[in-house]
Every structure is written in structure tokens, then in C-alpha cells.
Amino acid sequence: MSAIPFPRGKTRELPFPDWMRTVQTRIEATLSRLLPPAEAIPARLHQAMRYASLNGGKRVRPLFAFAAGELTGGSPEKLEIVSSAVELIHAYSLVHDDLPCMDNDVLRRGRPTCHVEYDEPTALLVGDSLQSLAFELLARTDLGSESANSARQLEMVRLLAHASGSSGMAGGQAIDLGAVGNVLDQPELELMHALKTGALIRAAVMLGALCGETLSDEARESLDRFAKRAGLLFQVVDDILDCTVSTATLGKTAGKDAVDEKPTYVSLLGLERAREFADELGKQALDSLAIFGERGQRLIELTAFITHRKF
Ligand code: GRG
Q: Which InterPro entries does this chain map to (predicted)?
């Protein structure tokens, strides 16, 4: 067990739903502050960037970053920035994923998708610009001016770039696009989701932890193990929700995986076994947190939230 002090922040005392709302509100305000103003030239692109990033989403990745940050006593100001960076990558991925050349969807977060509200070229540029802004945020001087912190910032940039690129999210998306109509076995499905969805959740956890005290190698490995299981759990639950919850509740088109002949945990295992698999992943994720004792409480609560979420 590493000798990390308890986090200093007052938010540790809050009940989980209040803590979650606090983080979500904080991220909304931070993104609004950090995104280019809607009226700045080129105004249409900036409006579309704000449309794709604000007023929506569960902010699951920022929640993971803040929960991991509470584990290491990370400063809320740093956590705001790294969480926003990860959320911008997520927002970019949704905009590009919804394009006609990919998933071709018209509904996201209960509203028309970005290319429907604006147009395809704008949506493409929105994704590009959100991605660039994410890395610009990680390079900010107020994230760390001393040399030790600068080395940490470089580590953060490397982690997020790896998680977003062809060895992470974009690679997972490529496997996904190539898998339509095919049957994947469980290891193939797991690899696809570990990259497409899991890599960014894993990066959120590790970036959040990097905002605080240094973890021992053992603690870092345990946290990474947790993040991998939690990322996969998030995806299995997503597959279950896609075929059990309505479009109105999800805020995106329900049942699309089956219509598009996408391999999912439900198509592979059936609904009951997919639910059992989710329970098993949840247990494995929590086991990995044992080393952190009470300091892992937020991550434990967040794991329960993603397991039982309804949208
Ligand atoms: C285009 C490079 C590129 C990648 C796209 C994220 C992604 C990869 C595709 C989205 C399609 C999808 C349904 C992925 C499964 C899980 C997932 C990422 C769901 C959406 O994330 P939530 O539930 O969304 O966190 P909100 O709206 O709450 O932010």
C-alpha cells in the first residue's frame, strides 16, 4: 500500500449523487469557459463546437478522472483541465462516429447530431478542432510549471494521444467498422471494446490520478487494472441498454446495434449472460481497488453507477 494522504478537498464528504452533480456542473462551466466563444470567427465552427460539447452527456470520463483524483489528492483546478481534455476527445469521437460515413446517426443526447444541425464538413472540422483543443489544454502552463510537473504533463499528453489514436479509440473504431455483419468471438470483441471505449476511460482514470500525489508502481498497476475492467463494464452495459431501453430514455437511437448487425456482448452471449458478465466485471473492478481502502470510495460508487445506469 502506498503512503498517499487523504485528499484535502471537501467534496469527499458529499453523498455520491451530490458529488456527481458537482463534478458535472463544474465540467459544464469549465468547458464553456475553455471553448472558443460562439461569436469568435469562424463563428459557425465555434458554435458547432459548443453545440457538440455543452449541455449534454453524463460526463462519465470526467467523473472517472475526478474520482481517481480524489484517490491521490489531486487539485480540483488540474482535474478540471484534464477532465475537460478527455471529454473533448469523447465529444469529437461522437461527432465523427455519427457521420454518414461511419454510424450515420441523426440523434445524440436527445438532439440532432452535429452534422444534421450544421452540415457534414462543419462536423468534420468540429471533431478535428475539439481534438486539437484537448491537447492544447494539456499543454497549458497552469497545469504545471515546475520541471517535475512538466514531465507529468508530457506523460499526460502521451497517455491521451495513445488512448485516442490507432492503438486506442480510433483503432477500436476501425475494428468496429470492419466487423459489421461478421461474428466476432469474445476475445476479438473484448479487444475492439478495450480500444474503442475502454482506452479513453482508462486514460481518464490515469490522468485524474496524475493530478495528485505520485502512486507507487503497485498502486498504479492496480488502478490501471481497475480502469480496464471498468471500461469494459461500461461497454457491456451500453450493449445491454441499446437493446433494452427506449430511444427517448437513451437520447440516441436505440436498437441500432442489431439493425446495423454490429457484434455486441448481447449478440454474442445473449441478454442474461451479458448481465452476468457485467456483474463479474464489476466484481473484478472492485477487487482491484482493495489496495486503496477508503480512498477508493468514489471509484467504488462510480462503478455501481455505471453498472446500474439507465441511459
Ligand atoms: C470516430 C475515432 C472515432 C471513434 C468513435 C466513441 C466512439 C468511437 C463511438 C461511439 C459509439 C458508441 C455507441 C460507443 C459505445 C460506448 C460509448 C462511447 C457510448 C457513448 O458514451 P456515453 O454514454 O455518452 O458516455 P454521453 O452522451 O453520456 O457522453
A: Isoprenoid_synthase_dom_sf, Polyprenyl_synt, Polyprenyl_synt_CS, Prenyl_diphosphate_synthase
